[in-house]
Amino acid sequence: MGERKREERDTMSGEEAVHDAVQEYYGRTLHNTGDLKTSACCAVEPPSDTVMQALSCIPNPVLEKFYGCGNPLPEDVEGLTVLDLGCGSGRDCYVMAHLVGEGGSVIGVDMTEEQLAVARQYADEYCTQSLGYARSNMQFLQGYIEDLSSIEGLGQGSVDLVISNCVVNLATDKLSVLRGVHNVLRNGGEFYFSDVFADRRIPDEIRRNNTLYGECLGGALYTNDFHAMCMKVGFLDPRIVSVTPIELSEEIEELVGNIRFVSITFRLFKLDDMEPDCEDYGQVAKYLGTLPGSKFGYELDRTHHFETGRPALVCGNTASILQNTRLAPHFLVIGNRDTHFGEFDCSGSSGSKGSNASASRNSNGSGAVAEGGCCSGGGGGCC
Q1: Nearest in space to 174 (alpha carbons), one of 382, 54, 25, 18
Q2: What average pLDDT score do residues 284-308 get?
Q3: CA–CA gap between residue 260 and residue 361 (Å, rounded)
Q4: Is the domain of 312 the same as that of 221?
Q5: pLDDT grade, residue 166 (50/70/90)?
Q6: CA dist., res. 209 & res. 176, Å (int)
Q7: Do 225 and 136 have their domain in common?
Q8: CATH number of the domain that 329 lies in?
Q9: pLDDT at position 70, please?
Q10: How many Å is the maximal CA-CA distance in the chain?
Q11: Do residues 216 and 333 share a domain?
């Protein structure tokens, strides 16, 4: 019993040390994105025209103090309740405040008070003057993303969409983060996030380097471990939206050796009928062309492109996503799961671009993620 208590105490002190180091790095060491030593915390993918329009109205201090490795900002979100994990200065919250409309709401959670102060400072003015709302639809709460249940207002099934931009890697207990997200999401909800991943487990000496941890490298998840965590908490079919290589300076490369890092944007859906593999039930889906900015086709993920009006064979998981999430009004799905025809053959699916790549490396050659099945999660694994 004494040994267990000592281990718990050591773990707690370790978590507190990491939290303190991250708060120091983002609250006081970094003044703007120019202080970063790698591209890990800088989004390099161009956002959509709609997001660009929203960004143009955001106050400069919010933009300058924001750090992120992607653009996890879906546009089909009007009226939703959105939670941003590790919101920092609030840039993505400000964008989502615009996209959800006056009838939606956005909650930003962060542990660093200096960042939250920036986010809160401009929220009312942005919503009432720039967006023309009667009042702000944003709120910013201080707390730890590893313990969402302790934050007031974040009860079970209270959120439609969770987003996060290069923050999960900074968490001391990533499994608890995923469990917390799964808990706060309503059924049919989604975790849409970008983060840094590695092609192997990070050695302790790199994890203990405060600069590398703050730059989102020291805490990067090995992709296979991430996939196992998803299975454990109930996100059974992770979908990859994009993979972007992370450029490192010679100084950083000397520290990390042969480890390859990439930024991956994932979509994780909370659905009761999801299966760990792609299964064939003879279902067909047709995109109606009604999503904002996607008149002629829709990218569900990087292996599923739906051309407007063209029927496509889909696996059971894809059919469920298109029928039982906020995407449902935009798709017609024919068929059910009464008859099972075996494993879904992604190589012959007209709803999937690309062929079976279960043994392939990713397109940037980093080897940090391998795809399998028609879905990034299926039998070959998302990672």
Answers
A1: 18
A2: 96
A3: 12
A4: no
A5: very high
A6: 23
A7: yes
A8: 3.40.5.100
A9: 84
A10: 65
A11: no
Whole-angstrom distance, CA of residue 326 vs CA of residue 188:
7
Predicted pLDDT of residue 351: 54
Q: Say which CATH number the domain at 57 has.
A: 3.40.50.150
Whose tokens are 């401009």? That residue is 122
Query: How far apart (Å, rounded) are the C-alpha atoms in residues 366 and 256?
Result: 14
**12 and 136, same domain (yes or no):** yes
The reply to whether 188 and 310 lie within a common domain is no
What stretches of 222-264 show up as alpha helix (H) in DSSP?
223-233, 250-256
In the chain, how many domains are there?
Answer: 2
User: Which of these three, 236, 269, 302, is where a domain ends?
Assistant: 269
Which among 121, 129, 83 has a CA at the least distance from the CA of 104? 83
Q: What is the mean pLDDT of the chain?
A: 84
Query: Contact, 285 vs 316, CB < 8 A?
Result: no
Q: Which domain holds residue 302?
A: 273-383
Residue with tokens 């490192």: 248
Q: Say if CB 27 and CB 115 are below 8 A apart.
A: yes
Rounded to two decimals, the pTM is 0.85
- Asked if 151 contacts 130 with a C-beta cutoff of 8 angstroms, the reply is no
| Same domain as 145, residue 58 | yes
In this structure, the answer to whether residues 279 and 342 fall within a common structural domain is yes
Backbone angles phi, psi at 48, to 5 degrees: -70, 165
Q: What is the pLDDT of residues 1-28, one digit of tens each?
A: 455 444 433 433 455 654 544 444 444 4
Final residue in a domain of this structure, among 247, 269, 291: 269
Amino acid present at 204: D
135-149, 202-216, 273-287: range with lowest mean pLDDT? 202-216
How many CA atoms lie within 13 Å of 98's alpha carbon, on the beta-carbon side?
A: 21
Task: Concatenate the DSSP letters of all residues of 175-202 into one string.
Answer: HHHHHHHHHHEEEEEEEEEEEEEESSPP
- State the sign of the Cα–Cα–Cα–Cα dihedral 49, 215, 93, 369: positive
pLDDT tens digits for 177-213?
A: 999 999 999 999 999 999 999 999 999 999 999 889 8
Residues 76 and 201 in one domain: yes
